[in-house]
Amino acid sequence: MKRSRKYQEYRQKVDRQRKYPIDEAIKLLKEGSYVKFDESVELAVRLGVNPKHADQMVRGTVALPHGTGKTVRVAVFAAGDKAAEAKEAGADLVGAEDLAEQVKNGVIDFDVAVATPDMMRVLGPLGKILGPRGLMPNPKTGTVTMDVAKAVNELKAGRIEFRVDKQANVAVSVGKLSFEENKLIDNVYAFLGAIMRAKPASTKGAYLLGASICSTMSPGLKLDHTQLLADMKK
Fold first, then answer.
1. Residue 153 CA to chain centroid, in angstroms?
2. Using 50, 70 and 90 to split pLDDT, how confident is the model at 2?
3. Distance (Å, rounded) from C-alpha 190 to C-alpha 232?
4. Do 136 and 75 meet the contact criterion of CB atoms below 8 Å apart?
5. % of residues, the chain, pLDDT over 70
6. In whole angstroms, what is the distance from residue 119 CA to residue 121 CA?
7. How far is the C-alpha of 104 from the C-alpha of 95, rounded, in Å?
8. DSSP 64-83
9. Tell me: the pLDDT tens digits for 131-171?
10. DSSP codes joined into one string, 159-194
11. DSSP secondary structure, 89-147, as one string
12. 29: helix, coil or strand?
């Protein structure tokens, strides 16, 4: 893939072998930005787990203290009072069988789905559609709940889901490059804290093996993950 001249110039400023302190890495991302739009900041961690084993699956949710800077469209599968509650909380789409029918027809105009437990009978047939997209509500991530208002409010405010992939990596957006440095750092530590709390009991040896950060158009910067862990214990 051919890269632009500005990208190549940016990459030359990055020491690919060095593990940067988080504050220095964010400063470099900000100083090196060469595009006119507000880039997302992505954090990736490599874990010492084997995702092929069910007891080493790492997944969960975390409320980033400063949000992601993205507009999140939330769909709620609910009926009656709970549907009204979801609408009042600001859900973008609310419905039951009618909303399920839209999904069956390929209309998936939302970023995350929430459902009341009784709606899982409606959602069951949609598993093959929503599952591969990471949109299937799940009790473990708080998206199957009777408190739909709380779920909608948290998702709108910046609660994100994370899940380890087949290569034992977890990647999430921790904000926008326009965020103040301290806010990005707060979000990074909030996410890492959730990752550490999600550590499977069956994991042996080192758990957090590495971390890197990048913006939408930047090369990745390796982070000093041992320092990150040390700072979290302070």
1. 16
2. low
3. 10
4. no
5. 99
6. 5
7. 14
8. -TT--SS---EEEE--HHHH
9. 998 899 999 888 999 999 999 999 998 888 899 999 999 99
10. EEEEE--TTSEEEEEEEETTS-HHHHHHHHHHHHHH
11. HT-SEEESHHHHHHHHTT----SEEEE-GGGHHHHGGGHHHHGGGT-S--GGGT-B-S-
12. helix
- The rounded radius of gyration (Å) of the Cα atoms in the chain is 19
Cα 148–chain centre separation? 20
Nearest to 39 by CA among 51, 31, 48: 31
**What pLDDT digit, counting tens, does each position of 87-142 carry?**
999 999 999 999 999 999 999 999 999 999 999 999 999 999 999 988 999 998 88
Tokens 């971390």 belong to which residue? 211
